[in-house]
Design goal:
single chain, 114 residues, mainly alpha, Rossmann fold, two-stranded parallel sheet
Length: 114
Amino acid sequence: MALSVLDRFLNRRSLGIARRVQLEPEKRAVGRDWPSRAHTMIGLRRLDNIQFCIERIIEERVPGDLLEAGVWRGGASVFMRGVLQAYGVTDRTVWLADSFKEGRSARSTGLRCT
């Protein structure tokens, strides 16, 4: 509640808590920018791909749940749930996985990338 009041106050004055950056649609489409108020950073093309994959899974009756690995704010997972809900699918779980530590690569954890 308090945040929405603050947001409205700041928006009326074209202010924000974060530095405002000019939208670059080309970068947004492929996930090359991290908007301060976004729920996901993967970009519109990747969201389109997720939707395509889920629809294909439903059409071809592929069994199993869905997983987002490397969550950030979880927007892609929320999107996955939305696609499933739009198709009336209630028997699948969307799992989220993340190390919850910034800057950890497979190399720094000792994991082999193959």
